[in-house]
Amino acid sequence: MNILIGLLIIAIGAFCQSSSYVPINKIRKWSWESYWLVQGVFAWLVFPLLGAFLAVPEGHGLFELYAASPKASLLTMFFGVLWGVGGLTFGLSMRYLGVALGQSIALGTCAGLGTIMGPVLLNLFFPELDALSALTSSVIIGVVVTLVGIAIIGVAGGMKSASLSEEEKKEAVKDFNFPKGLAIALLAGFMSGCFNVGLEFGKDINFGELTNPMFRTLPATLLVTIGGFLTNAVYCLYQNRKNNTFADYKDGGVWANNLVFCALAGLLWYSQFFGLSLGRSFFEAGSAMDTLAFCILMALNVTFSNVWGIILKEWKGCSKKTIAVLVTGIAVLILSSFLPELLK
């Protein structure tokens, strides 16, 4: 029962994340770099900070917590900076592939590589923790099956590209470009996997028994998102200067509207990692389900992103065969999340 509750909480967070790009469509007159920066303030600073405070018991502070583990804190933030690169290219993958296909490939790659890279790199820096012991056979099989799911979805994307006319492609996704989008999505997935690496490095950054188990990963989550915000802020401000779009911030007529929808997008995006923290507390610490929790979140993100893709008619005009291949890939990704329990 605990496992089902944990999965349900993670699924709710995944649904929120997959819906986070919908409010962005309501943003008016701002360039991409302007709204991306503002929503990032909420997604990567404001809400993660509020979440981290939940892990701090009365009489203690966040700075005290980070100061007690300086090496782990810096490494956690460093991998957040790398994850920020993934966040930037993640947006581009959806520009060229659409919400459904872009998120499927990027998040699928993120799920597999993020799960493996975390224990491997943690073992490299802190061998005394024996992090590699978490990579059991069931976890490895789950990751392999996840990558198979990615490949199947990639085949569906190729079939979509081959079957649609240029006019139909532009109608579904304005800048659709499968080869370019695929390369960017794979890069985005690889770099985005650094989020889980950061969480692995920061998993002990909490007050132990004084912290509610539901909130123990939230201080590390804040460090990762701060690192990601730094990467994104530098790039967005550079684009503001390059494209002469600093004037976006001076348009007082749209600030109220845009701030509301940026905040909503940020809240929905952060909900995935808030849900991940809460959901993992229902899994046995160090179990295969606990190790694969990040992978499960990404797989569910893929599932819900494709639901939005269907709603937004991104697969309109594709053959039934293409849709069948897509659904098969999604099913394989979902199956990979439950394999640890099925293989017990």
Explain what the structure shows.
This protein is mostly helical. The two termini are 16 Å apart. The model has no long low-confidence stretch (mean pLDDT 85).
Describe the structure using short key phrases.
single chain, 344 residues, mainly alpha, 13 helices, globular
Major β-sheet profile: none
Topology, number of strands: 0
Mean pLDDT: 85
Radius of gyration: 20 Å
Point out poorly predicted stretches.
none
Run of helices and strands:
HHHHHHHHHHHHH
Briefly say what this structure is.
This protein is an all-alpha fold and 344 residues long.
Helices, strands, pairings?
Blueprint: H1 2-18, H2 32-53, H3 62-68, H4 70-125, H5 137-163, H6 166-172, H7 178-192, H8 194-201, H9 218-242, H10 252-280, H11 288-291, H12 293-311, H13 320-342
